[in-house]
Design brief:
Length: 165
Amino acid sequence: MELSTWLTNFRELHERARRKLHTSDERALYLEAREQLARTLLAAQGHKLQEGAAARRNFRVPKGLTLDVCFRSGPVRSRTLDISSGGFSCMLNGEPGESEHTGFVLWLPGEEEPPVVGRARIVALIPRSEEGNRRISFTFTDVSEEDRERLEMLIFDLALGYIRA
């Protein structure tokens, strides 16, 4: 199937999923197509997926969302650099512990959308920039399945917005 045809079909499935209009068969087809698109985009970005891992949980898109991170030393407000249904990265100042678990509140776009609230663990610390900030990547350790699904819908909305075919 030609890429533009496949993407048109996926966009239609995605919109039906957003409106919760899928039959159970369509839902299964949609989830399979979502995983396929995530694998393709991860490969295009040069990322390798660990065996058995879900691509849709690892696929990140650039998006600046308001974020409150709660460290032992106190809360910090930042913006995400990128987001996936498995985690996020942001720029922060300070010295968090490398394996520190944190609480977070991630504010989604749209006034009617409640924030995603959960816990996360630091998985990568990038050295400080000239401004004193450092890029920190987090993986979610405690996020509800409902919130993960809301994040995945947002991530694929964003990804589809970047793809022109």
